[in-house]
Specification:
This protein is α+β, with helices and mostly antiparallel strands. 36% of the residues lie in helices and 22% in strands. The chain is built from 11 helices and 16 strands. The two termini are 16 Å apart.
Length: 429
Amino acid sequence: MIKHLNHNASSKEVLINRFATEAAELLEWLAQFGAEPSGGVTRLLYTEAWQQAQSALAKRMQSIGLFSYHDDAGNVFGRLQGTGKGVVVTGSHVDTVIHGGRFDGAYGIIAGIIAAAYLQEAFGAPQLSIEVVSFAEEEGSRFPLTFWGSGNVTGRYTTSTPPSIEDIEGISLEAAMHSAGFGKGSPTVGYANPVSDWSAFVELHIEQGSVLEREQQQIGIVQGIVGQRRYTFEVGGEANHAGTTPMSYRKDALCGASEMIVAIRDEAVAYGDPMVATVGRLQVHPGTVNVVAGSATFTLDVRHPEPEIIEVFCSSLQQKLQYIAERSGLILNSSQWMDGAPSLMNGALTNLARGLCDSRGLHSKLMYSGAGHDAQLIAPICPTLMIFVPSRGGISHSPEEYTKPEDLAAGILVLVDLLYLLAYKGERL
């Protein structure tokens, strides 16, 4: 199917070995930016570690012959210039969660760099330009928003009027952006190819689940990404002395929050798979051993592939939590700060990827993503596809996150084949 890339065992083996070595080396290299003694990585939006990583990636792109530039939000691009019009884009996000791993997001970026370098070496200039993107932010770990990087590319956000939000230290998004040198209307160049003109977008990512590993599949071809909502709930009670306040007199915010959290778990279990609901953060004030909690704040993350079910679940759940609060003499306030609609991937790209996997002898599986990704913002605008590779034990957002080099390489091989067909052969979608 692909000129100069024979589909025999030796050709496949040579490429897998090459890409495995390069992927391991580049992931190790990128993990130094934000590295922790525990082996984890913390690289939050606009922090020093983030700035170092983006700068290093730009230089790496330049070193393999890509033209590197950034936009006003801090997204970094590397372009392999084509001989004609159009651009095929690949990449992922550079930021991490707190105490995260070295594969989430980073893999998609280094895969793009490896693929672009190989294609240029083997075939020269493509017909359509190939761009590798390192999105500035996706996780929502520093500020209470997600997809800041791809959101700026797609028009969801703009640096001229950023959301009025702060991190836990009280630093605003706008202040952090300006401090890092962005948001001042001074990108290195404007978009040579606006997202509406992208011919295709392909994002490689670790699965962050255990399905591929359990089913012994090398490649996951993502059909769609679940929708998700995120909330912050504030439970207000009355701080009081732990020894002199009888149990019946108490307005214990932590007890109320705890009951709500259990109710959330029970409601999600009752709905059954694929509904999931997670309380990932709980903060208590004053947080003192001998004081009844006066307030408690917790987050809620809800995910499901069907928007109607998400709506019914969240509406019903909020009524139940309000009932718990009123019964306990507490005040409950909530704010929704994310509403990501489910997103389908492009059918033609999905079929193309599956055919390429078959031709390479790679075991693949059609699947849905339970995690949100930048691809879901791109999908409504241009043909988009996600490719998954296995995660050991399904572990992600952890220093224990790991994917075998040969599995990383298999994903890169599929990406190389896709980019060749799309950018060199002008495959129509």
